Amino acid sequence: MHTLQHRVTALLAVIAAAAGFALFGMSNAVAAHGRKPTIVLVHGAFADGASWNPVIERLQRRGFTAVAVANPLRGVASDAEALDAHLAAIDGPVVLVGHSYGGAVITNVKARSPKVKALVYIAAFAPAEGEAAAQLAAKYPGSTLGETLAAVPLPDGSKDLHIKPPLFRQQFAADVPARQAALMASTQRPIRDAALNEASGTPAWASIPSWFLLAGADKNIPVRAQKFMADRAGSRATTTAEGASHAVAVSRPNLVAELVLRAAG
Question: Which domain of life is it from (predicted)?
Fold first, then answer.
């Protein structure tokens, strides 16, 4: 009898332990599902990761992990592959944020990735399949970028493009303080001309929810073009920063961070 009671007690202990393990696993799954996403920010042409600093500061204050990845600016497909590699190393859900050409890059991220829960376009390109950034910038009048560019020939016959520093502020960052704009002009990263003319692939915004911020006084991507892309993508929320330059993440970081937080849910 004593032996039988001992066996029953042991069996109950095993069942309790298994149940506890299952509950622990369930709670872990719930915690993982409910945790805050990592915010991955992708800069565009004529900028670098530091252009996201004011936005990152605000996201960090709200308890989010935010990472500004280095965008190679060599070509849409290859830049998207580089981004996919970064995403593969991140555990948990992700919100992707793209500025300018960076929008074309996040558009070409692998849409099948279950970790990307939202796309946020900040004065950005959101091309459909077969479209190029240069094509979209010229869709409506208003872009004056072409006349401000200088080119550096590359060994493969393509060219690196950058904005002439004396013209940088008026073209790219008119609402940014002059000294800060001068630093931005000196640290801008060039983009390969072929990247601006490369056709986009299947758009991630067709299957992933998107949010858009439009820069009202943008001289790179006319605001009408930005709105066209937002409407076509079925934007969950579209905010217009009236009077904002293309460098809206620098000049209006509160507005940008607020939209990112809305997308992060």
Answer: Bacteria
Q: What is the pLDDT of residues 124-182, one digit of tens each?
A: 999 999 999 999 999 999 999 999 999 999 999 999 999 999 999 999 999 999 999 99
The answer to whether 93 touches 38, Cβ cutoff 8 Å, is yes
Q: How many CB atoms sit inside 10 A of residue 72's CB?
A: 16
Question: Domain segments of the chain: what residues?
Answer: 36-264
147: DSSP letter: G
What Å distances lie between residue 2 and 15, 112, 127, 142, 168, CA to CA? 20, 59, 75, 90, 88
Q: How many Å apart are CA 255 and CA 243, to the nearest integer?
A: 13
Instruction: Calculate the alpha carbon distances from 254 to 85, 143, 242 in Å.
Output: 29, 26, 14
Contacts 24+ apart (CB under 8 A), 21-27: none
CATH superfamily ID and name for 36-264: Alpha/Beta hydrolase fold, catalytic domain (3.40.50.1820)
- Tell the residue number behind the tokens 């993440």, with chain if given: 249
In the beta sheet, which residues pair with residue 122? 99, 213
How wide is the angle at C-alpha 108 spanned by C-alphas 65 and 59, nearest 5°? Answer: 20
Say which residue the tokens 């006349």 belong to.
147
What beta strand segments (E) does 6-85 contain? 38-42, 66-69
